[in-house]
Amino acid sequence: MNDNRSVIVMRAVQEIQDGMVVNLGIGLPTMVANYIPENVNVMLHSENGLLGIGPYPVTGEEDPDLINAGKETITAISGSSFFDSAESFSMIRGGHIGLAILGGMEVSETGDLANWMIPGKMVKGMGGAMDLVSGAQRVVVIMEHVNKHGESKVKRACTLPLTGQRVVDRLITDLAVFDFTKDGMVLVELQPGATLEEVRSKTDASFKTTTELERGVTC
Amino acid sequence: MSKVYNSTAEAVRDIRDGSTLIVGGFGLCGIPENLIQALVEQRTRDLTVVSNNCGVDDWGLGLLLAAKQIRKMVSSYVGENKAFERQYLSGELEVELVPQGTLAERIRAGGAGIPGFYTPTGVGTVVADGKEHKDFDGRTYLLEKAITGDFALVKAWKADTLGNLVFRKTSRNFNPIAAAAGRITIAEAEEIVPAGTLDPDSIHTPGVYVQRVVQGTGYQKRIERLTVRSI
User: Least CA distance to A134: which residue of chain B?
Assistant: First the structure.
């Protein structure tokens, strides 16, 4: 994991509270599981039909009948349950999953998320992402603030096809944490080493800041 | 009356060109690998296949794709397959991408005799194009239609001779709902036991949904992404 991704993952872990039921998306969000403190008990949901994901198996104990949504071999913790795909998405759509942490390609200032398709490239499919953003009680998106060309992924409006409209509750990047509220997009935290000027210069979206952050800058 | 067939070839014999199949499995986990192989050997063509994924290049539904036996795929994620990309871009293969939860519920509804349902998934995205929108209590939902199949192909851990099925761990996935949504459902199993030996409280798919049972052999159960931890 590079430094930017590590900063994002370490901040995302703090979103997870004791007793929560959490779905972690494929890729960077999956890595969040490795940093959940031992005294924080959570049930990790896997949309292919498991509540209670455990660590990866040790060599020799991998089971082809036991995988996560990223098709990786996993284990199941004590107290876990298995179910079919319709039941799994009833849990999601029915609002029984407290928190979903998902990756992103673009997030807009109104909380739209694009993370499944780039026009002109081969379409792979949305998997369960559209269901998760419309069903989970709280949706946190984690992604790098700018793309490899240095362009802001935090947009006034998404340019890529949407996964969901007005679905993001919180965005965590390597530079900052934003909340999406009735009053719009609000910068609530700066990541270690980031400045308000840097966030402003690398953010296409318009956002408000909290007075605490403004004070911090003028001090 | 026993539903057990002697071979997978016999079990799939009346699947004709142009049929719609609902196929269980998630990735390569819980796929009916013997029944897929039998269809490859039978060379049934122009199939519409409803399945969450389309296998990989050399395994699972990827074998039917490589032999150009599939005309249309209805899936939520198809990113593991190069032949898929080639056939899709050349126009040989039609694709309908459906959000995974909507796909599962459309199949469930098909088996349950419900022609359609409203879901919030996909509102404001390309998935919503051309679909009826309806507001309930201030939130907007889309009308999605049920899916049924001429046949469903599923993979069980254990089956009894009456078609009662038990699945193992996450290999259950789409298999029970696929079983209910097939007009004729063919189940292959790792083990077939006499009726009356499975605990009735532990049956995942009651035999009423299953018309044919066949013993699977030589299970490869390929792992798509082997991940282990060091101690």
Answer: B121
- What per-residue confidence (pLDDT) applies to A218? 40
A72 carries an active-site annotation: no
Summarize pLDDT for A72-113 with one digit per residue, the tens: 999 999 999 999 999 999 999 999 999 999 999 999 999 999
Q: Please indicate whether, in this complex, the C-beta atoms of A123 and B108 are within 8 angstroms of each other.
A: no
In the structure encoding, which two tokens stand for residue A182, read together?
């009735």
Measured between CB atoms, does B104 come within 8 Å of chain A?
A: yes
Residues of the domain holding B9: 4-116+147-215
List Cβ neighbours of B132 (8 Å cut-off, separation of 6 or more).
Answer: B142, B143
Q: Which domains does chain A have, with CATH numbers?
A: 3-214 (3.40.1080.10)
Non-local CB neighbours of A10 within 8 Å, separated by 6+ positions? A35
**Which pTM value belongs to this model?**
0.97
**Which B residues in the span 43-82 are in contact with A, Cβ-Cβ below 8 Å?**
52, 75-79
A124–B173 CB contact, under 8 Å: no
Could you give the CA distance from residue A92 to residue B177 in angstroms, rounded to a whole number? 17
Please give the residue of chain A at the shortest CA–CA distance from B118.
Answer: A93
We report the CATH number of the domain holding residue B14 as 3.40.1080.10
